[in-house]
Amino acid sequence: MASINDESSFEDPAEALRLIERERANLERELTPDPRWMYWPWGLAWLIGSGLLFLRYGPDGRVLADVPAWLPPTVQAGSVIIAGIITGVVGFRSGRQVAGPTSRQAAMYGFAWSISFTALSVIFARLSQVPPEETLGILWGGGMVALVGALYMAGAAVWNDRDMFVLGAWISGVNVIGVLLGPGWHALVIAVAGGGGLLVAGLVGWLRWR
Questions:
Q1: How far apart are CA 122 and CA 120, in angstroms?
Q2: Measured between alpha carbons, how far is 82 from 47 in angstroms, rounded to an integer?
Q3: Residue 15 is inside which H or E element, if any?
């Protein structure tokens, strides 16, 4: 690839502009987190965790897979916490490459993911003995998904990212529909529309980012 110091690059203004655009794109790609790491952990967490909840606590109390009652909420909570930590670490590491307000924004946004999900998990763990067993999926799933949608939309406002805002709005809308449909259906909606949507968003974002 031609370098900026290459004299021939400046003899052709069009080539110089193309070189500047390439360097700018390379820099932006280095500073932008890999979308796969931002979306796929959540997609897998919802696909596995909510899918297992649907199989154990199906609509109208049906049991489609006779697994221990404690397994689905435990898997869901653990996978969500792991996804939140991964997203926070990726956002924080991306922010360390730049200085100034942008770096602080990235660091604070990364910490927001980890801190908010840890706090919400502790709260839900304390409340898990209160609601009926069949509504635990709504408590954990609905609350966690709502927080993810809100954080994506907040991140879109910080980074001026329209695609991220649309994704956050989609997640929030899907979550509301699932909650209104009730236990069992909520888990299925989140696993398919939520988790599947995040996997697709990560793939599309990575292709653009690459």
A1: 5
A2: 14
A3: helix 13-31
- Of the candidates 120, 141, 134, 121, the one whose C-alpha atom is nearest the C-alpha of residue 193 is 141
CA dist 45 to 132, 173, 184, Å? 23, 19, 17
Give the integer Cα–Cα distance in Å for 188 and 55: 9
Q: b/e per residue, 78-109, with b = 16+ CB within 10 A?
A: ebbbebbebbbebbbebbeeeeeeebebbbeb
Distance CA(2)–CA(40), nearest Å, equals 35
- Cβ-in-10-Å burial (0-12, 13-18, 19+) of 184 comes to buried
Pick the closest to residue 77 from 143, 174, 152 (CA basis): 143
d(CA 80, CA 151): 14
DSSP single-letter state for residue 129: T
Per the CB < 8 A criterion, the answer to whether 97 and 31 are in contact is: yes
Residues 77 and 91: their CA atoms lie apart, in Å, by 21
Cβ-based neighbours of 165, under 8 Å, separated by 6 or more: 152, 153, 156, 157
* Residue-wise pLDDT tens digits, 50-63: 899 899 888 887 88
What residues does each domain of the chain span?
A: 34-209
Give whole-number Cα distances, 161 to 23, 109, 152, 158, 200, in Å.
21, 14, 10, 8, 17
Instruction: Write out pLDDT tens, residues 72-114.
Output: 878 887 887 888 788 778 766 665 555 566 677 777 877 887 7
